[in-house]
Amino acid sequence: MNYMRELIHPSSVIAPGAGIGAGVRIGPFCTVGPDVVLEDGAELISHVAVEGRTRIGAGAKLFPFCTVGLAPQDLKYKGEDTQTIIGARTQIREHCSIHRGTVTGTGVTRIGADCLLMAVVHVAHDCDIGDGVIISNNVVLGGHVTIGERAVIGGAAALLQFVRIGKGAMVGGVSGVPADVVPYSFVFGTRARQVGLNIVGLRRRGLDKAQLHRIRAAYKHIFHGEGVFAARVAETAATYGDDPFVAEMLDFIANPGRQGLITTTATAAGDED
Length: 273
Prior knowledge:
With 273 residues, this protein is of the alpha/beta class. Helices cover 18% and strands 25% of the residues. It is built from 5 helices and 27 strands.
């Protein structure tokens, strides 16, 4: 790719072979490795390090002292050719660290489009973050964490390795998240537990009162109803399964991850009853 030298500060080091798109801006004291691609309109404000086989999406903005695509903090990693992908228009704020994938995982650390990672967020190897996700300051993600689109993670939360955060869910600040979070729900606590639905997020999607009522009723039956958890899930499917938001919740529960599911008592669903 061709690029205009006047958009790259002379103190920055761009390795031969790096792909620099049209309109890319690189401020002072940045380093860009030989296998990096910066798509059109991306911006590195200053003191940014981008290394490895990394692609930064069009219009993405990286703020001072963030690092993207460096080797993971995994003793099994031996320099294999793995990857990091940052989506279009995503903002990576000050002092964030995003590590490349590993061959024992998917091989790719991926952050979607239109995300906001606030200052001092750490994204470990092989994480997969959907579009429109907001991660607040000082959040740490262990390796292999998956976050569904438009989820919100509160400040200083810590997510255990292999945890899944469902689409549209919210994690409260200063919460330890040891297991999976159902889509559109809200979890909170030192050892996070289910405390309700992410009603604000659902309203922002334009749902009317009737649909919100159905989703709330389904959620209450799953997590607060009488009887065995598996039976409550089956009853919810029979009663509310035609609602697309409820169907997403049920599908998430039906396909469990390796860490189990957060419930109202912060235990795995299979241990609750």
